[in-house]
Write a structure and sequence with these properties.
With 374 residues, the protein is α+β, with helices and mostly antiparallel strands. It contains 12 helices and 14 strands. It has 3 domains: 3-130, PAS domain (Beta-Lactamase); 132-210, Signal transduction histidine kinase, dimerisation/phosphotransfer (DHp) domain (Helix Hairpins); 211-374, Histidine kinase-like ATPase, C-terminal domain (Heat Shock Protein 90), CATH 3.30.565. 43% of the residues lie in helices and 22% in strands. The strands form 4 sheets. The protein has a 5-stranded antiparallel sheet with strand order 4-3-7-6-5. Strands 9-11-12-14-13 form a 5-stranded mixed sheet. A two-stranded antiparallel ribbon has the order 1-2. Helix 7 (218-228) packs across helix 9 (255-272). The two termini are 21 Å apart.
Amino acid sequence: MTRVRPGGYRTVPSPQHQAPCHVIPETAKAFLEALPLPCLVIGRDKAVAFTNSRARDLFQNSYPGQPIAELLLSKDVLEAVMAAQTNERAMAIRFALPGSITQWFEAHIAPLRLDGEAACSGLVLATLSDLTQQQRIERMRADFVANASHELRTPLASLLGFIETLQGPARDDAEARERFLAVMKTQAERMSRLINDLLSLSRIEVSEHLRPNARVDLCEVIAHVADSLAALALDSGVDLVLDLPPQPLTVFGERDELVRVFENLVENAIKYGASGGRVEVEAWRAEPSKPQAVVVVCDFGPGIAPEHVPRLTERFYRVDIRESRQKGGTGLGLALVKHILNRHRGALDIVSELGRGSTFTVRLGLADADASAS
């Protein structure tokens, strides 16, 4: 039977890997089941001999006899297992487990000794500590400092320049003072938006590996977003058209984060596609192999050149930096959308054609589909 592990890695076990290579005493199994961390017992053949319930939850498609190098995809872990078997030496190894969302672990590897149990000779015990959140927090700090210092440099320099001017040559010039204060307010508001977006992105990245479990109706979310952006659409001369199904489209999610997704997509469509005069938001239930909710945000503006489309969800990437800043953009909106959808195990597709507009398609698994699968 073909097995697929999280992240898309496909393994086909050979016949010799269909059964454990070692007999683990029941007392040892009971002890390992009681441990709060995922535990793996590795046999002399460097294959999995036993996993406790927490390890089985983590590696849902693992099987007895699976090579440890295939399960954990780490050469360092394999070498530590060999060292534990030959030198009876304990080691701690950090490694990354690739997939749609990368996870980081520390494996504590040591010989498994049980007095009076000859069957356990040569076995190795590996306990796994999840470092994913710790790694994300460390990367968040580094990214925040680097991005904030780069993006805040220009508005801060502008503010300092105007302050020096107001303290000097324009001290008694009322007209210049009003003009400069208006520009300073704009720059301060830009910095505030940038910091808020950076903090939001950092919070989402920290919890990106944890899928939300609350039930949210996407139709209600989209209707709420349309109401909140109605004034912007009116001021921009854009007709905002909704086409929603009568029945709810219920997904597992965090409502505020999903509101943020569709606020960003619809607001961008209104701001950058205003010349088209219309923005359409359509949602429906699709029935591929697994039922899902599909939401499409379409504008009829100038469109985006093909070379820009693959990079739109990168942090601070802008097709036109000047236009983006004039419209209050921070360059983080679509990066936020991408990471929120990653957390919700959703997907974003972008299609654009110069002169004909852009289409942003969001796909999210339906809650009733997940319940049926369970």
